[in-house]
Hints:
Elements: E1 4-5, E2 11-12, H1 20-71, E3 77-80, H2 81-86, E4 110-116, E5 121-128, E6 139-143, H3 144-149
Antiparallel strand pairs: 1-2, 3-4, 4-5, 5-6
Amino acid sequence: xxxxxxxxxxxxxxxxxxxxxxxxxxxxxxxxxxxxxxxxxxxxxxxxxxxxxxxxxxxxxxxxxxxxxxxxxxxxxxxxxxxxxxxxxxxxxxxxxxxxxxxxxxxxxxxxxxxxxxxxxxxxxxxxxxxxxxxxxxxxxxxxxxxxxxxxxxxxxxx
Length: 159
């Protein structure tokens, strides 16, 4: 039987497998790695959803912008996402990134267009709410600038 000397200077025989201490050390290392990685992944997913809400708000505003060009509203005008789809300004109501397989509320999500003074320019703001709810909003009257710059995150709020 061949004997060899391990790192601690002890003579050992042909050992196979892991000791309980080695196995516990591996489990502890994996637990530490997962404790660090899981919250980091969760925050990445959350941040991505907020960016998707902002992008969907910009899409709705751009559709309302084309509608406003045709309508030339002289007062504040509200365009519901449902109407923008019906009239062909949006292909479909955007998907809700928080609820898989769902879209935003067709009656509760809209874009507000306001005429700015006598300049003929308009300001745009979006309100997005999940489908089938009355009290929860992803954001309310979020301006185009805030959506573009991402200065305000889409957080569920109550009106």
